[in-house]
Amino acid sequence: MSKAERTRQYIVEKTAPIFNTKGYAGTSLTDMTEATGLTKGSIYGNFANKDEVALASFDYNHKKVIAIIQQEMEKEKTMKGKLLVYANVYENFMKLPFPKGGCPLLNTATEADDTHPQLREKVGDAITSWKNKLVAYLKEGAENKEFKMPANPDQWALTMIATIEGAIMLVQATGKLNYRKLVLQSVEKMILDL
């Protein structure tokens, strides 16, 4: 890695938690300079603008979540077990090295839907990727005769995603952690009923 690449990576690592907690609009240049210890010129010498930092920060936070899920899935031998990882990870995310501020998909989607088309597109791509991964697990599980393929696998996958993200939103809105547990029990049931 070159010095410039290391500096860019450092900026992203230090600002990603801020973007994930304060959002794009709420993150100021002062927040970025304080987090990194760099000057405005150093930050904008490595990124064209705040948009570039925000987009790279979303990617960084999203990759952290994917890595956690992938690490947990590697422990599972069945497709049903791999699907259950989602419920387990989101139930126990406070015990895992999740990005500060929680799920970057929900955090970014709720802010960027009307205000930042590039961030909205990144979230949309991440959700589509997640849906496609779930559908692939469903197909493999059905081929392995672990369970029966749902009549509409896309609908099943999107319902699972919406239920998980909805659980996070309910907890954020109410502060009631037991809501997450209750909703994620429904996710587990969706999987166990396959």
UniProtKB/TrEMBL annotation:
A Pfam entry, by short name: TetR_N
Keywords: DNA-binding, Transcription, Transcription regulation
InterPro entries: Homeodomain-like_sf (IPR009057), HTH_TetR (IPR001647), Tet_transcr_reg_TetR-rel_C_sf (IPR036271), TetR_C (IPR011075)
Transmembrane segments: none
GO molecular function per UniProt: DNA binding
DNA-binding region ranges: 28-47
Record carries keyword GTP-binding: no
Highest rank taxon of the organism: Bacteria
Annotated HTH tetR-type domain residues: 5-65
Keyword DNA-binding: yes
Protein name per UniProt: TetR family transcriptional regulator
Organism: Chitinophaga oryziterrae
